[in-house]
Amino acid sequence: MSDADWLSASFNHGWTYSQRIAAVDAGRGLVELLAVYYTHSSRDVWQQRLQAGQIRLNGELVRLDQLLASGDQVCWQRPPWLEAAVPASWEVIFDDGDLLVVNKPSGLPVIPGGGFLDHTLTGLLQRRCQLDGESRLPRPVHRLGRFTSGLLICARQRETRAKLSAMFRRATAGDQGCKKIYRALAHRNLNVHCDEVATIRVPIVQTAHPMVGKVWVAADSSRQHDSKQSESRVLTALSTVRLLERRQDADLLEVAIQTGRPHQIRIHLAAIGSPLIGDPLYGFDGQISSAATPGDGGYCLHAHRLLDVPYRKRLHGFTACSPRRLQMKTER
Q: What SS3 class is residue 309?
């Protein structure tokens, strides 16, 4: 991409986070509950924000900790912060005025979160609509991680979004839905063969992590890290893996997912000894880095094909050209 294809780092206008106090939390302290609701910051940090005048209680600025009552409205007025530069262009795969399918570049968040508010695909789509005078904003019907490139479906009409979102939710749980096929660059694994399709059924579960509180991991590896993990949080997950090309320093894999669990491909490939090259969090033998978060990048993962997408009484299929590192030699 050229410089013109990037949105430069810049400050946003800040954001107000709001929380209504439930009856079960009545009588607890303001700073204590802020640390409970927003685990990314410690009680000491919330105390500093309170004293800096960033917290309002029922519309009034407060600077001293106090006990809360059921129904109280707590607002944190987060000051403007610097958002990193992101790719700002993408290939349009399909657009009929309602359905919009794009090839999202790696590095571009889909929706606000993880330190991003304006520098997102949804934010950029909104800007384009305003510049073009278009009243109907295309909104994503599913998600891709910031550093996952490839096919993302958006829709302008509310009814279309509702139908497709429901389909993707069913597919996430493993019910019948569209077929999702990815490409991934992984560490070489001689147990994965070109003439075989490997099936991975390792469940996924949350476990403790020092930087973000909880992360999703393979159930087997979570027991190594958190023996008290509740079994009720275990999610079934199903992936299939096929070796497309064995390289001197990597395996090019095709991964189809029948469920859509958080970070499923990264977790499943690590579980079978094929972690993504450059993945800072999920490593060999179920090892989870305490110095990385799920939102950190460095790996190559691409949503290559979506098949059997129901739209206007037909099943549609879409393909997004892979980045060069994820192309087979015969495709270059």
A: strand
User: Which domain-ending residue is among 118, 143, 176?
Assistant: 176
Whether this prediction's pTM lies above 0.85 is answered by: yes
Tell me the CATH number at 27: 3.10.290.10
Tell me the per-residue pLDDT of 100-140, one tens digit each, with 9 for 90 and over: 999 999 999 999 998 999 999 999 999 999 999 998 999 99
Distances from the Cα of 61 to the Cαs of 15, 65, 73, 139, in angstroms? 16, 12, 12, 35
Domain that holds residue 227: 183-301
Q: What contacts 24+ positions apart, CB below 8 Å, involve 86-95?
A: 86/6, 86/7, 86/116, 86/119, 86/120, 87/1, 87/5, 87/6, 87/7, 88/5, 88/6, 88/7, 88/124, 89/1, 89/5, 90/121, 91/320, 91/321, 93/151, 93/318, 93/319, 93/320, 94/316, 94/318
